[in-house]
Design brief:
The chain is mainly β. The chain has one helix and 19 strands. The protein is globular and about 40 Å long.
Length: 187
């Protein structure tokens, strides 16, 4: 069972049909919309400021969502995918955004709707990313507009697929399989 923790009298709240992996952590002032998923070892820590997450957002394994005390909350739109080991901190993320694996988005950055933050990119503090931008590098720079193929083939596909993946886990009732001994001596 995921760790969902009340902090300073504030309980995280979830919309309809969430999936929280057993090792996910959600703390404090967090409000999630419908159909969200928080995967293994992901942390959503609303301890020092508020975190607001739209509908159908997937927060993949090892990602960290956090804020800055008395300065920057975190706002995430609808149909957003936050890749494995990404850090999203005290910023605003529009709808239909893909934040790639290992990317970092810092305080007061604004990520426009329909954008892609490439794997490993670092969006520095206060950067404003225009809608439909493909950002890459350290520090992240706009390298192209998001094409229709990239939008449909990655942003929309990944967001949709994570809803499917979550349904597999829900169907299993959250129960792990019994361990099996490998009897194949040749493998």
């Amino acid at each position: 069972m995921a760790l969902v923790r009340i902090l300073n009298g504030i309980t995280p709240t979830f919309g309809r049909d969430p999936f929280l992996a057993e090792t996910a952590v959600v703390i404090g002032d967090v409000v999630m919309g419908d159909g969200c998923s928080v995967w293994y070892c992901a942390v959503v820590r609303g301890d020092v400021n508020s975190i607001r997450i739209g509908d159908r957002v997937n927060i993949q394994d090892g990602a960290v969502l956090h804020c800055t005390y008395q300065k920057c909350g975190l706002q995430i739109g609808n149909d957003v995918s936050i890749g494995h080991n990404a850090i999203v901190h005290g910023c605003t993320v529009g709808d239909k955004v893909l934040i790639g694996m290992g990317a970092i988005v810092m305080d007061q950055a604004v990520i426009g709707t329909g954008s892609v933050i490439a794997a490993g990119a670092v969006v520095t503090q206060g950067t404003v990313v225009e809608p439909g931008s493909l950002m890459a590098g350290v520090p992240a720079k706009r390298i192209a507009a998001v094409s229709k193929d990239l939008s449909e083939g990655e942003i929309e596909r990944i967001a949709k697929n994570y809803g499917i993946y979550a349904s597999w886990y829900k169907e299993e009732g959250g129960q792990g399989a019994e361990p099996r001994m490998n009897t194949d001596r040749h493998g």
